[in-house]
Amino acid sequence: MKKTSLIWTILWIGLLGRQSLFASPLTFQNSSHFSEENMKKSLAWYTLNPHPMGSENQTKVAQTLELTLKKLGWKTTKQKFNTLVPNVDSEKFNGDHKNEKATKTINGYNIIGTLSGKEHCSLIIGGHYDTKYFKNFRFVGANDGGSSTIFMLELARLLKKEKFKAGTLGSCSISLVFFDGEEAFLPNWEEGKFLLGIQDNLYGSREFVNKYIHKKNNVYYFENRPINLTIILDMIGHKEQSLMITDGSNDVYSEAFIKSTKNTQIKKTWLSMEDDHIPFKELNLPFLHIIDWTNISEWHTAKDTEEIISFKNLADFGKTFLNFLSHKRLENGK
């Protein structure tokens, strides 16, 4: 091979390699209702590889989320943040790198999509899209991370079509927030605090609240609109789905959500949990935290795969969700 040909070949291979690093938006069938097929395709994308915060795979997932929201017509923001995390490669945590420090700084990305509403209020709907780090097995988080992520993408597609009456929750500006770094890097939720003096969880939601939520005259705002309600979703797609609205969730909105149900099993519970709603709760903002904490035999195991997901259950939950957004809005969540 001539030298010039070799150079062009190397350049071409390099270009192909660079192209493979760039993400593409997901595509959807243009259904008038929650599409099981759309969510099935999205979950196949989500579970292709494990993607903890800070990994190359997670960066690609973030890019895809951003591009997909833009393609669907949402105003999109990528919030990049740097954060200190446990270094699971260090010897302290039985890692392979003896000289590594016990902590390291990595990048995280919250992906925010906003659809402007007709009225002066804001509704935040969030869920985490990272998968928990496990060294000894492949964890793709079909339910824990995946179910809320694919649901929110399908919700984004349908909300562009919905027309909500004045005075309803849906008439507010709606922001879908895909949080990075909900999961702890260490095996247990509190280990980071005890071993390193750092909070090893809720990285993205804490960063989002610190940067974007502002207080004026005792009212909290996001993008210059008062926040009426925050809804946090997690682990909502199990084939034996039994959803809970956890303790601390706004009572009036909880009852309204339950009354909105369409073939979805959901109830208010005394169970108190730590999830991405906590940074909002600490500001005394009204919230709903919805999770399935009944079907947890596959939770944080290699069995959290597409086989445990019911796309019909997710579609039914979508009908309930849209019904709820048609509910009369409370002023200041009261």
TrEMBL record:
GO terms for molecular function: glutaminyl-peptide cyclotransferase activity; zinc ion binding. Keywords: Acyltransferase, Transferase. Signal peptide: none annotated. It holds the Pfam family Peptidase_M28. InterPro entries: Peptidase_M28, QC/QCL. Residues 110-324 form the Peptidase M28 domain. Coiled coil: none annotated. The keyword Nuclease does not apply. It comes from the Bacteria. This is M28 family peptidase. It comes from Fluviispira multicolorata.
